[in-house]
């Protein structure tokens, strides 16, 4: 059966038509000029944090279809000109899935009941050559930049990393806001730290990192909707909790479905929040300018990203 109250939440949170019948940016529409000005005002001391994982053969992927990036040189020590044989260049190519490491999900990434965000017919929108609608290119232009807010749920619970079966609740999100003395508002991008990233970055344990994991309960989608968030990203592989019960239900990845399909809210996965979280705990400031534009891959179902937080 579907998760309890899923259909009720889907009807309540659905943003179809809110920004027009042709809209393909969803909740990124919450980011307006005033939001960007407020985001820029968060930069006070000049600290810069890279929130992305590396893109190389040693990435987190285990699967055959989602594999780790492979980089090949196409030119090495190639002379610029026969007349200048010692003046050389090198070029390379990369072969990788768009969702193999730190990345954004496009609004066309998931669907149910035959429809994508804003009522797009999946059979008419999705092709072997990409998404005719709801591709990542619509999120890339003009980009994803806004005020970011980190809610460190692992630190809230007094642990290095949450248990693998922990479902983050609305009460957890509110408690983190109170503890961190931070507010979340329209156009903000929420970053959620579970500590799960440490299984990969500290322990080198891909199996645990890519397996069952803590994350947001699907009920947190209503909180995100009420706050008018622009997007949500987290330090795990799925943003939401992955557990056997949820994956076996009639609506697996329920938070994905509510966010991407019903709300039109992009999801960021595998953001490395460790250095940022340590600094936020040290100076007590959990808000910052977040710059995380995806690549403008026409029709892409997702995109690699190298996000940065500026404080």
From TrEMBL:
Query: InterPro entries, from UniProt?
Result: KFase/CYL, KFase_sf
A Pfam family of the record is Cyclase
Q: Name one GO biological process term.
A: L-tryptophan catabolic process to kynurenine
Q: Which SUPFAM superfamilies does the entry link to? A: Putative cyclase
Its Gene Ontology molecular function terms? arylformamidase activity
- Protein name according to UniProt: Kynurenine formamidase
Q: Which domain of life is it from?
A: Bacteria
């Amino acid at each position: 059966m579907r998760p309890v109250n899923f259909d009720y939440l889907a009807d309540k949170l659905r943003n179809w038509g809110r920004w027009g019948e042709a809209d393909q940016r969803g909740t990124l529409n919450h980011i307006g000029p005033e939001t960007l000005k407020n985001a820029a005002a968060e930069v006070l001391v000049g600290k810069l944090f890279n929130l992305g994982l590396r893109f190389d053969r040693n990435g987190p992927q285990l699967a055959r279809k989602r594999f780790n990036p492979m980089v090949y040189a196409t030119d090495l020590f190639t002379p610029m000109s026969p007349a200048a044989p010692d003046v050389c260049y090198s070029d390379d190519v990369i072969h990788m899935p768009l969702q193999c490491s730190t990345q954004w999900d496009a609004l066309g990434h998931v669907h149910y009941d035959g429809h994508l965000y804003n009522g797009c017919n999946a059979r008419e929108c999705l092709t072997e050559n990409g998404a005719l609608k709801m591709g990542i290119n619509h999120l890339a232009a003009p980009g994803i930049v806004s005020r970011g807010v980190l809610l460190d749920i692992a630190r809230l619970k007094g642990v290095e990393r949450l248990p693998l079966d922990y479902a983050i609740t609305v009460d957890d999100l509110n408690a983190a806001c109170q503890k961190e003395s931070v507010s979340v508002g329209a156009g903000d991008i929420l970053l959620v730290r579970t500590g799960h990233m440490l299984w990969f970055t500290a322990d080198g344990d891909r199996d645990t990192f890519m397996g069952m994991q803590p994350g947001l309960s699907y009920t947190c989608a209503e909180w995100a909707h009420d706050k008018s968030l622009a997007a949500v990203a987290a330090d795990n592989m799925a943003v939401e909790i992955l557990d056997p019960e949820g994956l076996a239900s009639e609506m697996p990845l329920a938070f994905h479905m509510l966010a991407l399909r019903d709300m039109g809210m992009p999801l960021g996965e595998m953001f490395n929040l460790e250095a940022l979280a340590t600094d936020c705990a040290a100076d007590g400031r959990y808000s910052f300018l977040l710059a995380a534009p995806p690549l403008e891959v026409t029709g892409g179902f997702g995109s690699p990203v190298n996000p940065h937080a500026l404080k």
